[in-house]
Fold these 4 entries.
Entry 1:
Amino acid sequence: QQQQQQQPRPPPSALNQLLHVSPNERGQFQGTWPIPETFWEGERLPRRSAQPTIHFDPTPRQPRIVDGLPFDKYALSNSPLTRWVLSFRKTNICFHCYIKGSQRSGGKGQAFGYLKPASTGNSVNLVVLPYDFEQLALLVHQLVKVHRLHPVPAWSQRFQAYVSNLPSYYAEPLRHTMLMKPLNIPQRLISDLWGPHVAKPPPTYHAAMQRLKLANKSAVDQLFQRLHTTISEQHQSNTPITSSSSSSS
C-alpha cells in the first residue's frame, strides 16, 4: 500500500498525443498490427474519428511480447504523459492500452499494446501487438513448447475461443506471421485451427474501408501540395509566411 501511494499520479489528460512513425529505407511506412476500431464489424460502418482515442491502464505491469511474432513500435512526442511514464524511473514496466468498443461484447476491449519507456529511459514508445496479446502469448507458448505443434483438443478449443473474439482485420496478419519464421507453423495446422471460427466482416466492410483510405490519402496529398506551393511562393518572394486571417495595420 505504501508503494502504491508513492507512485506518480497519472496526468489528467493526454489528448492529441503525437506518434512518430518512421519510414523504412524505401520511404515506406510499414506496420504489422492495426490499432483496433471502436466497434465490432456489422452490416454498417459507424462514423468515427480519423484519430483513435487510446485508453491506458495506469497500473504498471511487466512488458510481454508474443514469442515468434513481430511487434510495432512508435515513439511518443514529449508531453505530460511521457514525463509521467518516465517519472517511474524504470524501463522494465509498461501500461496496457485499449480501444473502447473494440471487443465483440463491447466494454473497454482487450489490450492491443502498451506504453513502455525506451531502454535509454529518455523517451516513451507505444508498442503495438496482436489483439489480446497476453492470451495469445500463452497459447503460442503452449502450442510450440508444450505440445510441439501437435495440439490437444482442449488447447484447440481455447485457441478457437480466442479467434472467435478476435476482430476480423487481425486474422490475415496473424495467420501470415504464424506461418513465417521463426514459428513456421504448418499451413494445414493453421487452416485446422481457424476453420469457421474466425469472424468475417460483411462484404461492404473492405470496400468501405478502401474508399475511406483513398479519400483520406487524397485529402492529405492536397494539403501537402498547398503547403508546398505556399512555401515555394514565400521563398521566391523572400517574405515571411503570415496567417491569412491577420489584419494589416
Entry 2:
Amino acid sequence: MTARLLAVQRHLVAGRREAEAIATSAGGSKVTRSEDEWALRCDLAVAYRAAYLMGWHQEVFNHITVKVPGSESLPHGPHFLINPFGLQFSEVTAGSLLRVGIDGTIIDKGTATGILLSQGFIVHSAVHAAREDMHCVVHCHHQPTVAVAMTEAGVLPLSQEVVGVFDSISYHPFEGTALDLSERDRMASNLGPKNTILILENHGPLTGGRTIAQAMFLMFLITRHCEYQSKAMAAVGGDISKLKIPTPEAVAEMAARKDTQKAAYDPAKLQFESWRRKVETQWGADSVYAA
C-alpha cells in the first residue's frame, strides 16, 4: 500500500472515531457514523473542494448531495449528506456535512453551522426521492451554463464533451427560487426516469449518478461544453446559423460510436482521483477530512 493510501486510511479511521464521539442530531442525541458513511463523507468533502477549484460554486450557495447507503428503511429515510449553509465549498469538511432525511429532518447536524438551506433541500430531495439510481446529485450556478440555460436554443451538440450525453439532457422550466415543495414533483417528472442531466432553465445545471465520481464527471462535461457554447455564440454575434452544428443523424452516430468503446478503465473515477490529489495538495488531508 502506498504512503498516500496509508495516510488516507489513517484519516478515515481516526476521523470516524472522533466523529462518533462528537456527532449529534438536531435534538442533541449522539449519532454514530459507520465506516462506510465516514468514507462517503470524505469523498463528498473532496467533491466540494474540487467543485470550488472548477468554479462550480456561488459563495455559500449551491450543493452536492449523496445518499447514505442502507438508509432507505430508516426513519425519515432515505438520508443524504449535504453541505451546511454558510460555508464556502472550500471550507466543507467531512465532519461538517449534514445528514438529512428525505422529509427535511436533520439527523446529524455536523460540526459547523448545522443549517439546512431549504432551497437546496427542495432541489436535491426531488431527485433523491424520484430516482433510486441517482445516489449523488450535483447542482450549481456555473455562469456560462446558466447563460446557456437562459436561451431558447438550450444546449447545442457542438462539442465532443456533450455529444456523448446529449440524449441524456432534460429541461425544467424556470419557477424562480425553489421554495415551493410542489415543484419537486414537476422537477422529477421533467428529469424523467433515465436522463442524468437536468437543465433548470434560467437557473443552472443539475447532474446525477450512481457515484460521486459519475455525477461530478457529468457536471464537468456539461459546464465545459457550455463554456465553449457561450464563447461560440458570442463569436458569431448570437447568430445560430453561423455555428457548425452536427445533424441529428451525425450526433446519434457519434453517441453510438462512443457506446461501443468499452474501455478497461472508468474515466469518471480516474478524473475524481485526480481531483482528490489536487484537493489534498491545495488544502492538506487534515483540512479536508477533518471531523
Entry 3:
Amino acid sequence: MTEDPSTKISHRAARQRRRPTSSAKQTPMLVTFAALVLVLLPTGASASFSMVVEHGVEECFIIRAPKEKSIISGNYDQLDDELTADPLRVTLFDAEEKKLWSSPLGAPEGTFSVASTGGRNMLCITNGIEPGLDDDAGNEQADRTVGFAVRVRPAAVRAQDDSVEGPDTRVMTNLIEMSEDLLDDFQDLNDHQAYLKVRESEHRDLTEATYSRIVRWTVLEALVLMAIAGGQVMYLKKFFEQKRYL
C-alpha cells in the first residue's frame, strides 16, 4: 500500500519543528506552520449509509484499515423515532474478532473512535438477537432503519525522536490532535444532518401518501353525494309527474 504524499509532507514538517527556538517572535510562525500541517494531513477514507435491519438479523460490514496505526471513528443513529431502541446493538470488532467498541443496549444513537492496528475490522449491527430481550414487548419485533458512518484515518503525527522533543513539538502535536477531534465532531454533525434528510424524506413520503388518500376519499365522497343528489332529483321529478297526472 503506497503512502499518501501529504502524509510524508506532514512527517517532514513535524521533524523540522522539533528544534527548540529561543525567539518569542517565532511563535506565530509555529501556529501558522502547524495550521499548514493540519491542512496537509491525509483525510483517509469515509462512508455513510442507511439501511433497514430486519428483526432477528445481524448485518456486518468489513472495514479494511491500513497496516500502520490508524483511527476508526464514526457514528450511528436509529432513524425510526417511533420505535424503541432496546433491541439495537452496534459493535466494532478488530481483525481477531475482539470487541473494540459496543454501543449501550437501548441507545438510539452514538459515536465511536478507537485505535486500530490495521487489518480486517468489522462493524456489526444487530436487531433483536441480544439475550434477555422480551420478544412480546411492544414493537421490539419490528424492522429498524439505521444510519451509520465510518471513517478511517492515520493516527495523529507524533514526535518519533525523543532527543529533539521540545515544547514546540508538543504544542504542534496537541494542535493536530485537537484539530482531528474537531474534524470528527464536524463530520458527525454532517452525518446527523444527512440522517435528518432521510427522516425528512420518509416523513414527506408519508405526508404525500396521506394527502393522496385524502384526495381519493374526497373525490369518492363527492361522487357519492352527486349520485345521491341525482337520485333525489329523479325521484322528486317522477313524484311530481305522477301527481300532475292525478
Entry 4:
Amino acid sequence: MTLHGVRASHNWLDIRMKVIGYAPISSDQRWRSANLKLGDAVYQVIHHFQLTPPSILDITDDNLKRLQESLSGPSTRPTGPTNNNQFPPSASDGFQRPNNDYTHVNNSRQGNQPVQNVIVEEKVNYEVEDYEVDALIPPIPSSFLKIDNMPMSELKQVMDDRAVLESFVGSTSGVKTLKELKQSIETSNVNAAKANLVHEGEMEGVCSEVESLKQDLDSKMQQYRKLDAERVAITHPPDLQEAIGELNKAKKNAYRESEEFADGWVESGGENVSDFVKKFMEVRLLYHTRAAKAERLENSM
C-alpha cells in the first residue's frame, strides 16, 4: 500500500511512501492471519491518516497540485519544489516518529459490523536502494519567489549577515526536505539495528545448533564413507586372472581330496562300494566343475 501523489513524513510511511506501520499488510502471513477484507484494511489506514495526518513535503501529482492551487487561490509559484503549507501539519513532526511498540486500532464503519481489534506493530523494515533515495532528493530550483519579492534592504541584510542567510536557507522547502530525508534514513538505520539486536540471542542459538549438527554430520559422513568402501570391496567384480587362479587352486584341492578319499577307501579294505562311489563322484564332480569354469574364463580373455 503506497501513498500516491505526494512526498510526506509520517511514522507509518517510509521514504518511498509505502505504508509500513500497519501490521496486517506487512507480510502475506500476517494478512492471512488478520482475517480482514481489503476494504476494511484500507479504511483503517485512511482513518489513521485522518486522525494523525502526515506532513506534506511536496506534491508530485500534477492533478493534485492543480486542485491544491485552486483551493488555496491563485498565486505565482516558482519552478521547482514548493512548500505546501495548506495541508494540515503532521502530529509526527518528521519521518519515523517514535511511538509505542504496539498501538490498538478499533474502528467501525457506518452501518457495518465493527472491525476487530488489530495490533499495529512497527517492526517492518524495507530495504531502500540508493537510486530510490536519489529520486527523493528535490531538484535545484531555477528561481526563488521569496528572493524575487524581497525588498532590497532585506536582501542586503541576507547577503551581509551570515546568520540571517543560514536562517533563510534553512527555511526553504528543499533544505527542509533534505533534513527530513536525512532524519528518516538515520531513524530507519537505528530501527534496523535495534531489530537485529533483538534477534541476536536467537541467531547465536541457531548458529550453535548449526555448528553442532555440522559436527554430527561430519562424523556420520566418515562412518558412511567407511561402510561405502566396504560395500564397494564386497560387490566389486573380482579380477579375471585372480578368479582363474582361485578356481585352479580350488580345482586342485578337490582333486587331491578325491584322490585321498579313494586311497583311504582302498587301504581300509574297500567295503560298501555304493557309498564310496557316491561320495567319490560328489568330490570328483566338484573338481571337473571348477576345471570347466576356469577353462571358460581363460577362453573368454
